[in-house]
Amino acid sequence: MTDNLHYKIAISLIPGIGSITAKSLIAYTGSAEQVFREKEKALRLIPGIGSVLAKNIVSSSVMTRAGKEVEFLQKNNVKAFFYLDQNYPQRLLGCTDAPVILYVKGDPSLNCPKVISIVGTRHATEYGKKMTDQLITTLAERGYPVVVVSGLAYGVDIQAHKSALRNGLPTVAVMGHGLETVYPSLHTAFAKEMIDNQGGVVSDFLSNSPIERTNFLRRNRIIAGLADAVIVVESAKKGGALVTAEIANSYNRDVFAFPGRVGDPFSEGCHFLIKSNRAVLMEGIADLEYVMNWSAAKSQPDAVQPCLFYDFSPDEKLIVDLLRAEGEMPIDLICIKTSLPMNKVSPTLLNLEFAGIVKGLPGKVFRAI
């Protein structure tokens, strides 16, 4: 299996061979390994290869570099998802320029039923941060099983990751470099928290790849391709967020954009997308639900009938007695008042909510019914 991984990595390293050509080679020969076993004469007959690329393949010394990468993956607990593997993100399969191999650290559900990408300027205003946080908070409150994807950059990206973590939603960062480091380094702690909470970081770059501006533009295709919808929060006339939106449109993804004030430089990009029909105007989650035809899991919490004869566990009784005595209370205060850890309080509240005994309110606040 390790030897096979060598070939899967190596095919992405051959000079002049991009992801589209690599997939064509594998389709014609039957496997990544077989590409390297074919004679030069046979390779020249494959459409789109020719004598130059055929010579590059047979004379290439990429197996040594691929071997070093396999060692890095094993040492740093990084997974490699090949495009023909079952665990490869299925949404990416419909993107012609999707990477042959994707490197993943963490355990994110990249094939989750609902995935959104949130992008925007690195110079996010308070308005942009607020819109990002409100959207993600509402997604969590309505019970959507959604993964939030962004790029871990300053501004809108890191706000999206922070809001997802705070609301208990898995979040994934697409990096523009290898997974041996985090850029910007100030966001290293957030990357670790994402990895530890059913999210992670992904990249199609080898370890120790140079950190260059063009790499971050290239990674935008993955941000667009992983998601069902791309949401642009704030953007100037030019920038990576508009590039991501353009790629998303080419992938037939739904694109949304928040409007801003007329004349605001960091709303001009969003206004352009809306005016040119490249994005749906977004004012809140209702627009996302309407266009995507989503239905909230918690859209009608009041319809739950309370159990008349409920056999309380000691922890449940402690929490219910507290809420009946004190009224509405945020979950962190419930933990403090009951001296119970969060990993006990959270599932206990969920059981009580399903039983119709407590009700969850915005901001992770609960009250007894």
Question: Helices and strands in order, then pairings?
Answer:
Layout: H1 2-10, H2 19-29, H3 32-37, H4 40-44, H5 50-59, H6 62-75, E1 79-82, E2 101-106, E3 114-119, H7 126-141, E4 146-150, H8 156-166, E5 171-174, H9 188-196, E6 200-203, H10 213-225, E7 229-232, H11 240-250, E8 254-257, H12 268-275, E9 280-281, H13 285-292, H14 314-326, E10 329-330, H15 331-338, H16 342-354, E11 358-361, E12 365-368
Parallel strand pairs: 3-4, 3-7, 4-5, 5-6, 7-8, 8-9
Antiparallel strand pairs: 1-2, 2-6, 10-12, 11-12
Attribute tags:
369 residues; alpha/beta; DNA polymerase, domain 1; Rossmann fold; Arc Repressor Mutant, subunit A; 3 domains; nine-stranded mixed beta sheet; three-stranded antiparallel beta sheet; 16 helices; 45% helix; globular
- Please write the string of helix (H) and strand (E) elements: HHHHHHEEEHEHEHEHEHEHEHHEHHEE
Unreliable stretches = 299-306
Beta-strand residue percentage: 5-15%
CATH topology term of the largest domain: Rossmann fold
Count of β-strands: 12
Distance between the termini: 56 Å
Sheet with the most strands, sense and barrel status: 9 strands, mixed
Structural class: alpha/beta
Task: Estimate the global geometry from the Cα principal axes.
Answer: globular
The CATH class name of the largest domain reads: Alpha Beta
Task: Give me the Rg, rounded.
Answer: 24 Å
Strands of the widest sheet, in order across it, are: 1-2-6-5-4-3-7-8-9
